Amino acid sequence: QIVGCDHQLGSAVKEDNCGVCNGDGSTCRLVRGQYKSQLSASKLDDTVVAIPYGSRQIRLVLKGPDHLYLETKTLQGVKSENSLSTAGSFLVENSSIDFQKFPDKEILRISGPLTADFTIKIHYAGAADSSVQFIFYQPIIHRWRETDFFPCSASCGGGYQLTSAECFDLRSNRVVADQYCHYYPENIKPKPKLQECNLDPCPASDGYKQIMPYDLYHPLPRWESTPWTACSSSCGGGIQSRSVSCVEEDIQGHISPVEEWKCMYTPKMPIVQPCNIFDCPKWLAQEWSPCTVTCGQGLRYRVVLCIDHRGMHTGGCSTKTKPHIKEECVVPTPCYKPKEKLPVEAKLPWYKQAQELEEGTAVSEEPSFIPEAWSACSVTCGVGSQMRLVKCQVLLSFSQSVADLPIDECEGPKPASQRACYSGPCSGEATEHTPEETQLWYGSLQEFDELYDWEYEGFTECSESCGGGKCKMFLCWICFPSSSVQEAVVTCLNKQTREIADETLCVSSRRPSQLLKSCSLDPCPPR
């Protein structure tokens, strides 16, 4: 017939994992984990795990070239060490040890309960890392223990008394600080109990004082608190505190402070709490405006606002951390800045391009057309086209941002968004250009025609040194017998700079007719 742990015949009662007969396992906790060695030139051994007094069902498995050994410490403080040099079963501090060794593995088993604190250590023996897996049941050695009732709150006439709870060390059989019991989540602190006491009438009542229900004539002590202090921070998370005390009210309604244990039948109110945990206002920078120029170096702006945790525009941001609202910007398109607004040395077909690549218009508080940079020419040789965007924009002075407007909001002529471009002669082409080609490249650019024109510039040397002669231009040429003449020199001239320009810049159809004059009118000496 079977015998249970309660030593009764026919009983099926067993010990739980904690070693308690017919227990529910609440007096111990399962501990499992893994240790991995980390080799170091200055470190020869390391601690794997500390297993306290009273632990049960201990099992460790080492995998790798290293070696396990033990250190123990009794409750009396006596220390010892066991190197586990041989495999087998043996006693260490009255605890039965079973140790197995393999070429690449070691297994340590201890049924328990341990009669001392064991520290499992590892000794590094190889170049490779090792790992140790462990599992055991650790006793909850600190447990709450209910106290006896405290003295009655009144010597007569009816009072009350409470119990409390204290943290007790099962090994040393002494009371320790509450924090040791809080370490174990399984530990639940018992609530205080309250009972009436000393209900006999006081002598002053001459024996006729009626004993009323306790909570009516003598209210229970209670927690009272002061108002919360101001938060330590206006944002970003702070703390505020208050004072909490146990008070008692007598039959006349007078309130006086009493010992805290009298209020322990209810939880004490918190004395500290977090406050203003929302984020502090921070600067929010919007996107940069376009550069104020279409070529070269300019400026760009952005709006920077102080935004609170609700996304609202507010104050309170530090001016020291405010992002800058203006910075320099560079448009990679080169700028051409010719004298007197026109290129002095510009040759066909670069003149018009140079003229239109001058520094762009800056956005102002009045709606104005703002052209962007021209695209590359659509062809690599010959005549092609270029495109660009032309926007109607205005500068918002309050926010220092640029807004796009409908085209009809801008007054005045809109700059061209397309133009012809010339990328040089194609292979095999002549470099001379007819008036029709010039007109194709430059459209109806009257200023171009007015800039370059034909002019007479002196005469050639006389064709004869004596004898004279002349031709005159009427409706047709009439030449006199003499052939001593000078021919007028016709050049293509830049009328602003008075410099000679390439003849292709002047319209060939407007070239003046040939002009001759007589010369060397003195008679030739006799031969």
Automatic annotation (TrEMBL):
Q: Which Gene3D superfamilies match?
A: 2.60.120.830, Thrombospondin type-1 (TSP1) repeat (2.20.100.10)
Please provide, in alphabetical order, the Gene Ontology terms of the cellular component aspect for this entry.
extracellular matrix; extracellular region
Q: Which UniProt keywords apply?
A: Disulfide bond, Repeat, Secreted, Signal
Compartments (UniProt record): Secreted
Q: Which Pfam families does UniProt cross-reference here? A: ADAMTS_spacer1, TSP1_ADAMTS
The record's section on InterPro entries has:
ADAMTS_ADAMTS-like (IPR050439), ADAMTS_spacer1 (IPR010294), TSP1_rpt (IPR000884), TSP1_rpt_sf (IPR036383)
Q: Where does it mainly reside?
A: secreted
The ADAMTS/ADAMTS-like Spacer domain covers 32-139
Which superkingdom? Eukaryota
* Name of the molecule in the record: ATL1 protein
